[in-house]
Design goal:
Elements: H1 8-21, H2 26-37, H3 46-56, H4 60-77, H5 85-91, H6 98-107, H7 111-124, H8 128-134, H9 144-179
Helix pairs in contact: 1-4, 2-3, 2-9, 3-9, 4-5, 4-6, 4-9, 6-9, 7-9, 8-9
């Protein structure tokens, strides 16, 4: 079988376009990241958070999970899924955990900080996540709310690790200057 390979730039564009199409901006995700990380980094800017979200959206695992989740949400809106899956996804049934499982799998590449942040966001529904989770009658977002949480948690973890790297580099530089 000679399947056509999809170029990374096309997958990245499709993932970003899918978010926008569903009413989720990079900035809305970055605002969640900012809220999660500002207590630990007083110099953090929204621009830093936007850049981190953009970097996370370059990861194939994130892109694939996002595209699959959004596609399932759209199919549920169009009532194109078989029962009982149609009703389960359309109603965002509480015992249906596949949405969280996909989002959780995507967050694993960013370490324990991302995992715990994802759990916090899944429970507390901050920012656009709350809007997506409580939207009744205006679309199905069973997968999307969890994927936005996954992206935000990953971007927050990425920033936390970068801050630590910068602090250590500064410490190393100071030690080096003391020696010289």
């Amino acid at each position: 079988m000679n399947a056509k390979r999809v170029h990374s730039r096309d997958v990245t564009k499709a993932a970003k376009d899918a978010l926008i199409e569903r009413g989720v901006s990079i900035e809305a995700i970055a605002e969640i990241v900012y809220e999660m990380q500002i207590p630990y980094n007083k110099n953090l800017t929204l621009k830093d958070c936007i850049e981190s979200v953009e970097k996370v959206l370059e990861k194939r695992e994130i892109q694939h999970a996002l595209l699959v989740g959004i596609e399932l949400d759209k199919l549920a809106e169009q009532k194109k899924l078989s029962e009982p899956l149609q009703s389960i996804i359309e109603s965002d049934e509480g015992l249906f955990g596949v949405d969280e499982t996909i989002a959780f799998g995507a967050v694993l590449g960013y370490g324990s900080i991302a995992v715990t942040t994802f759990g916090h966001l899944d429970k507390n529904k901050i920012g656009i996540i709350r809007e997506l989770d409580t939207k009744k009658g205006n679309g199905v977002h069973t997968f999307l709310d969890d994927m936005v949480g996954s992206i935000a948690a990953s971007a927050a973890s990425r920033l936390a690790h970068r801050l630590r790297d910068e602090e250590e580099a500064l410490m190393d530089q100071r030690e080096k200057e003391k020696v010289n």
